[in-house]
């Protein structure tokens, strides 16, 4: 399970660094979908509601915050996608585009490619990450992927990517829990700001 930031808080002394700001709804979508892509099976938020904290899920009187309203449908998406991924093993996670420290680039000779390629601006510490995240899952830790998770790492701008795969894919719709077929080996995939999509390969 991953616990992600959902609030700001009052720090204990003036010498402490500035408290982080309250995330936006689009940033919460980014946190939910990147959590799924990196293989987590659960998600929680810091904090639901607590004195000296701003944001979170509820005000001190129990009134739901705007962030709660934004996270509510994301929780349904998370549950639906995590249910599909639960029987599988997280295999690899690649970053296409900007490469923050510790991340792996999408292999140039790998079975999955973006066409056209994703622009790759240089990473700068503190800058908003741009690009796409591609995570693979499968039933066998040493086998081939059966499912892919794509995430738009830019939480401010929607984008459409074109993914080339070794076989046709189906896209999962969390709201209905149904799979939609995409014929062909090059699939056009619209991704909201910070949002993602689960795909599975058709044998």
Give the number of domains.
2
Kindly report the average pLDDT value. 94
The CATH class of the largest domain turns out to be Mainly Beta
Number of strands: 13
Label the CATH architecture of the largest domain: Sandwich
Low-confidence stretches: none
The percent of residues in helical segments reads 10-25%
Structural class: alpha+beta
Oligomer: single chain
CA gyration radius, whole angstroms:
18 Å
Strand content: 25-35%
Strand order of the largest sheet: 5-7-8-13-10-11
Helix and strand element order: EEHEEHEEEEEEEEE
Number of helices: 2
CATH topology of the largest domain: Immunoglobulin-like
Distance between the termini: 31 Å
Please give a handful of descriptors for the protein shown.
single chain, 203 residues, alpha+beta, Immunoglobulin-like, six-stranded antiparallel beta sheet, 33% strand
Layout of strands and helices, then pairs:
Elements: E1 2-5, E2 7-9, H1 25-37, E3 43-46, E4 53-55, H2 66-85, E5 89-97, E6 113-114, E7 131-138, E8 147-152, E9 159-164, E10 169-173, E11 178-182, E12 186-191, E13 196-201
Helix pairs in contact: 1-2
């Amino acid at each position: 399970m991953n616990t992600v930031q959902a609030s700001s808080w009052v720090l204990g002394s003036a010498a402490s660094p500035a408290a982080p700001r309250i995330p936006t709804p689009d940033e919460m979508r980014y946190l939910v979908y990147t959590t799924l892509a990196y293989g987590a099976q659960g998600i929680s938020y810091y904090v639901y509601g607590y004195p000296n904290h701003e944001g979170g899920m509820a005000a001190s009187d129990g009134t739901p915050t705007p962030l709660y309203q934004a996270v509510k449908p994301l929780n349904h998406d998370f549950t639906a996608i995590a249910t599909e991924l639960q029987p599988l093993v997280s295999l690899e996670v690649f970053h296409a585009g900007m490469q923050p420290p510790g991340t792996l680039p999408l292999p140039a000779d790998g079975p999955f490619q973006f066409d056209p390629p994703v622009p790759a601006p240089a990473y700068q510490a503190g800058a908003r990450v741009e690009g796409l995240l591609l995570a693979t899952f499968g039933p066998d830790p040493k086998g081939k992927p059966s499912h892919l998770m794509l995430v738009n790492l830019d939480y401010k701008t929607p984008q459409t990517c074109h993914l080339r795969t070794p076989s046709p894919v189906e896209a999962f719709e969390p709201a209905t829990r149904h799979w939609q077929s995409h014929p062909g080996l090059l699939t056009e995939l619209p991704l909201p700001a910070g949002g993602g999509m689960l795909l599975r390969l058709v044998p």
